[in-house]
Amino acid sequence: MRRVRIASLAAAATLLLVGGAAAVVRDDPEPSATYLTDDQGRALVLRGFNTASSAKSTPDGMPEFTEAQLDREHADMGTNFVRFLISWRSVEPEPGTYDRAYLDRVAERVGWYADRGYHVMLDMHQDLYSGAITPDGKTGNGAPAWATYLDGLPVGTHDMWEQYYLDPGVIRAFDNFWNTTGAHPELTEHYAGAWRAVAERFAGNPAVVAYDLMNEPYGGTLQGPDFEAGPLTALYQRTADAIRQVDANKWVCVAPQAMGVNWGTPSGLGPVADRRDGEARIAYCPHIYPLPMDLGGGYEGTSRTLVDATIDSWRDHALRTARALGDAPIILGEFGLDTTLPGALEFVDRMYATAAEMGAGVSYWSRDPGAWGPYEEDGTARNLVAALDTPYPRAVAGTPTDWTAAPDRLELTFRPNPSVTAPTEIYLPRTGFPAGVHVDGAQVQDWNPQSRLLTLRGHGSPDSVTVTVTPAP
Length: 473
What we know:
alpha/beta; TIM Barrel; Immunoglobulin-like; eight-stranded parallel sheet; 11 helices
């Protein structure tokens, strides 16, 4: 195990150094100027959680998460976004049969978020392809058993779950899915059909803003650009086409392979055509797990140096990939860590600042209780709650070009969109703004001390506007 970890870390460090050296000879990529928009045309700055890891294995496919817990999250941190885990196994339990009762359960939870003004991204989740890779069904998640073909190859037992990706049986299951073996061309067709069923169910639901087509794709024996530009892009195109048959409006989110890209290396993902009237609604949803921290290290010393290099490389590659995909907006679909580690909250701050600089939304991994999450098992707030309860612009009547936040200050620069009549909406935490707000650069429409939402009147001019919000004197 130690040799595996040291070799992996050395390889990652080499990749990071190569990536950093290459970045020196290229112009820095511009931040994204494209955002997901709500039904009123406002640019959305999305901040929330993945909900939740427990959905991977529960018999009914639902996360162990209650409406009261959502109320608590909303009150404590002012979140406005959720990456809600769904699974192929639950959508299509038998070939060609879609579980409407499961989709109704998802819709019920989506309703919880809708009632509180959230935006929902449905994420077709998988890890290690399927729970059927081991007899007990407790190792992987995602695909139904009927779509899992190991061809008699073994799957071992490991302390680190990522090592299962190297087992012959797991690799074969992926190869059969991508039809690298030539034996199962029907599997990607079923996958696209399952997404069509999901999109048909949620096409008219305004709370669902996006569909995340696959969590952390893995190519089996095919890796790197050959996988991403080949079978992965082809699956995304087939699935996007299936979704557009029943839903012309939701954003379609595409993710790169996890191996390497999560550590800051480039993606070879190809463009996906959006066959809808009007501008394309394809978004880019990468993850980041810097390898030193993924292996249990903190954000200090040499580990911090490597992590900072990873973040810089990841940011630049993400922006370039989004541009290559057609100036796609970016959502950081996952990042997270054990927040008891040294420097953990500094890393969290760095990631949210990087996302703001990029113009990217964020869904933290995850809303589950414990060391990675915001609450203990008994509901006690953890250190992450205070770290994430910070000011941010939730919906902007134009295009944000820059925004920065401190606990008691927010500065937002944006280009107003004269066609948007809805107000700009800003969340302000109680700790930094206990007795009201002072605004420079805009007129206040409303300040709600209960919801902590500040709304600003629209601007008729297309000229750039800078708004500064501080506590009332």
